[in-house]
Input
Amino acid sequence: MALSRALLARLKEIVGPVYVLTRPEDVVVYEQDAFLVAHALPDIVVLPGSAAEVAGVVRAAHEANVPLVVRGAGTGLNGGSIPIAGGVMLVLTRMNRILEIDPRNRLAVVEPGVVNADLTAAAARHGLFYAPDPGSQSVSTIGGNVGNNAGGPHCLSYGVTGNHVLAMEIALASGGMTWVGGRSVDPPGYDLCGVMVGSEGTLAVVTAVVVRLLRKAEAARTLLAAFETIDDASQTVSEIIAAGIVPTAMEMMDGVVMAAVEAAIHAGYPADAGAVLLIEVEGLPDSLPRQMERIETICRAHTPRMLRTAASEQERLLLWKGRKEGAGALGRLAPSYYLHDGVVPRTRLPEVMRKVVEIGKAHHLRIGNLFHAGDGNLHPIILFNPREPGIMDKVVRAGEEILHACVEAGGTITGEHGVGIEKREYMRWMFSDADLLAMQRVKRAFDPSGVMNPGKLLPLGTRPDVTIKPVMTAGMWT
Amino acid sequence: MNRDKLIRELRAVVGDEYVLVEKEDVIVYEQDGSIMQAMPEIVVLPGSAEEVAAVVRAAKQANVPIVPRGSGTGLAGGAVPAEGGVVISLARMNRILELDLRNRLAVVEPGVINQDVTKAVAADGFFYAPDPSSQAACSIGGNIANNSGGPHTLAYGVTTNHVLGVEVVLDDGRVVWLGGQVPDCAGYDLCGAFVGSEGTVGIVTKAVLHLMRSRESVRTLLAIFDRMDAATQTVVDITAAGIVPAALEMMDRLTIEAVETGAPVGYPRDADAVLLVELEGVREFTERGAREVHEICMHHGARQVRVAQDDAERLRLWKGRKGAFGALGTLAPNYYVQDGVVPRSRLPEIMRQIATISARYHLRIANVFHAGDGNLHPNILFDMRTPGELDKVIAAGEDILRACVAVGGSITGEHGIGLEKKAYIGLLFSDADLNAMAKVRKAFDPDGRFNPAKMFPTPITCAEMRRAPAKIPAGLWI
Output
């Protein structure tokens, strides 16, 4: 896309010439996020330093009728920050200040570029923490988390990003800034703050966020339960939830992933077991032993090979290390992988997990599983070698079949990674034309000229217009 | 419009007996729980989503206002047909369609009474959390429109936190699903935007509700204070100590006087404030929490702290709180219940301000409210027969709301905006903020036919609406 000199000059004036990148060797860094099967070059990359600058850039793009794509740390898994139509990319990483921490009212005000883990580190001084903990939390930004309504292992009891954002300041496509939500919970009027969370940059650009902070639990206990089969582990999850127990986290790792993790991290998992569950409960020290006992009783009914409660904080962290860094270890199994994200009602977990295994077999693909079992949030990881001819088609088809199985079981096409370009056509499996039209109405209300992150979230009726380029890469997160 | 033609069409849709047009029939629908009135021209009682859709299409074609109504217990005039037109009463659509306890959800029609949901699942150990004081009469559809809260909102959140999806009839008669049966559906969170939209976006015809597991143990304490300041400080300290009670309610001296005159429960008449604290959860939490709350109360010089020893005593402690509104009738012929929110840390200060406002206007104000949420309910006592008194009451109410906003709070905690507060919404939102909301309104209801003259700051059209009735309705709830 040829961009006018006038736009370029205007952008330089708004943010300063050093923060406007146009040379191919500079902008190439921004052609991709963690959706590893697609990429596209932005024409201009802009790094604003303040809300006012963001508003200026948004207005300029709108007036020039040029696509505008927002990007945080680029850890998104759905291709949401890939500029498939070119245009201006707005990178918010310079806006990384924590503006306020108010411990008495348990909230923090942050700029969108603040890294998730940095916020929790700052809140820890007051005995508080920020609950949503995506696997990428040491790099991903609050703005990106908000855009994708990110989740994480502890969302089982604490909820996802949408449950922890009280308000935000946004820059609108039509120019101008506005606040949505409020510092007190559930302000009157339409819940536009809720609409913005998970809107993937298609409506407006967030410039400041008010988030809720939670009090740290007094004590935590972590149990590792190993099972002979995925089926036994899935049944256990289903029964724990049915018994009315809500652990803070209940994660599953299957034998495929475990073998890789154990070789890399030595967290003490039984490498030849069919599946392990990592179950954590939090609360008052007095109440934990009894809760753990109930969980162990349910586990025992499914012939576990081993039940081990972490005896020390060190052992607890090591068990978690295996989970949190698990995805990084997958490189030992195959040169590349495609990480999926689907949700099923927890009662259907055993059945859908069997289906995932079948789909893998049918396509002669190895699939590993490392996921938030307590939420019914699956992360099947399709392992493959990109040099094998025709492999990409098979991988994409297998992924599609898995998501279809999730939807058929009453679930959804994404638990926490979002829709982006990756899943926009699958939206039709969940929503009728009328439902999608309702979303279109909101999109048009906020972005009448369609410049905000075009080609994302809502189906176009065609395959994404992107180069499919499988790559090998280390850091992926779940 | 051709009224007769519309009536004919509506009769064809829902049947003759469910279209009311005679004055003596429609007058029942001129008012809700607020002090405003206006007559509908036609009242329709559809029996299914298809009928609602057909009614909406017919009304749109005739270009008349459409006002949805549940049980009419709303306190902000949301169901008052301010511009006449068609009132759609959803009272006939009162079936619980599905109970799925393993996935903890219920699918209900909008006319289902709040309490009936809990009744249907209580035997299995579940409950529906939002518990507005009107729960024996108000409907789920009305709760959704107003994003209702209740005493136990402190721990469990308001209606929006318990609605997973809604089926909605839009302005063109299209039936769409917003959200779904799993939380945090892909796409824009339009279910969240719909909850609290007060009938201005569409009409809900089905709702998927989240059910919670009944708590293992409940403990209730009643603390009596000689000074309001000590009571509010106690609330602040309970929160700061990291204890989240299921409910934390306060009553002031005037309310105590009313309770002891109307329905005595044995509160000392010379006390300045009573706190009712309820803890729910595992036994270990409620026991320790009760102990800690007891200590904090004593630390602030509570005259007495009673801990309920059994269920019968627990209900006795609640009796004063639940009967407080009815008892206010012993103090004055009329009262106007306000609804504001402040950050909890500002509670002591705002209560002092309310006392000042009361003195300034020579109006008695009784306070009975959800202190733990910082959600105030000042009841301004007055006599409608005194000329000019209502003006004073409205002015005092406005001063209170201004004071709430000035300390960082909001103009409504759970009653909504409706007609009552649309003039004040500007205190909370800038023009740009309201404009963002108007975009959504316009996207869904371009002709402004859905519940016109509500929520947005339009001038009040009928002068008599503001101070209509010669009497205040009997049953008011908060």
Observations:
- Chain A has 15 helices and 22 strands.
- Chain A has two domains: 1-216+432-467, 219-408.
